[in-house]
Fold this protein.
Amino acid sequence: MKLNASNKSSTTQRGSIFSKARNSIFRSKGERGADVKTLRGLTGADFEGEVRVTRGRTNLFSCICGGKELVNKKRYIMIKGPNLFVFADMDAPSPKYAIELAHKKIERCTNQQIVYLDDGLGTVQYEFKFNLHSDPGIAEEFVVALRKQIAAGNVYEVKEGLGHHPESGRSKSVTFATTIAEKKVKEQPVSVSVAEVLIESTGTMRGRLLKIMST
């Protein structure tokens, strides 16, 4: 299909916008240049929303009874292509970190409020706790988007392994988002161990003993 002059101009302009944003985020060492609006691009995001995010599983009992939350923080998240971006809030100049979705697995809590993302080997990497009172369907929308983009990420890696050009057929905004994710995955927070959570929640000798045993 041939592009007319208007389409060519629009395509060139979009490429220029992403090029400037890419240069900005690398010059600022990741501090700006990839805000929510820029990462959306013209095609939009696969999912956006506010959620409490924790590295690892914060509370063994939270899935059953919504136990006390200790270290999770309210964040604004976006799924764009096979990557999940975590922002401090919707107005942040760039994501705090990114999570590559290829090979990840989803675990849904019985209370439906909490979604776990594990590494594909059974280890929970992230916990997402949604407020279903304000939006009853948001957790389900998140899970649907996750499944779609985990599959897309798996296909991407297979194509890359076979020597194909994996960016073929992708929008410029998804390509840009993938470039940003490659940098931001290195900035993921340290995982919180179950023992550390027990110590923080109880302060008992049992918690201290568990910490010693887990090292």
In short: Strands lie at 47-55, 73-79, 83-87, 97-100, 105-108, 114-118, 124-129. The mean pLDDT is 78. The longest helix spans residues 138-161.
